[in-house]
Structures are given as C-alpha cells and as structure tokens.
Design goal:
This protein has one helix and three strands, in the order E-E-H-E. By secondary structure, it is of the alpha+beta class.
C-alpha cells in the first residue's frame, strides 16, 4: 500500500460557494482506489476531488 494525498473541496448545503481546498492522506494500492475510498469516507454531500498525488 502506498500513501496518497487527496485534494478536495466541498459545498455545504445553503452556501453559495464551495469551501477552501482541503487535503486528506489515504493509503491505497493505486490512485483509483484512493479516489473511491476518499469519496466513500467523505462526510460531506457535495465533495469535489481536485487531484490525487502520491506522497
């Protein structure tokens, strides 16, 4: 397993603009698995994944 950094931003219900860009470190076998895991574990309704880099 490798470490990946997932850059994302999300929009809270009732707001007009998305929030600031955040990052999340996740361990996965490849970048696609990291994307799926980040989307699955996000607790926000409108998550937009911007990019995934290997750490």
């Amino acid at each position: 397993m490798r470490a990946y950094i997932v850059y994302y931003k999300y929009k809270l219900p009732g707001t007009k603009k998305p929030g600031a860009v955040k990052l999340y470190r996740i361990y996965a076998n490849d970048a696609e698995e990291a994307r799926r895991m980040a989307t699955q574990h996000a607790n926000y309704p409108d998550v937009e994944i911007l990019r995934i880099t290997q750490a």
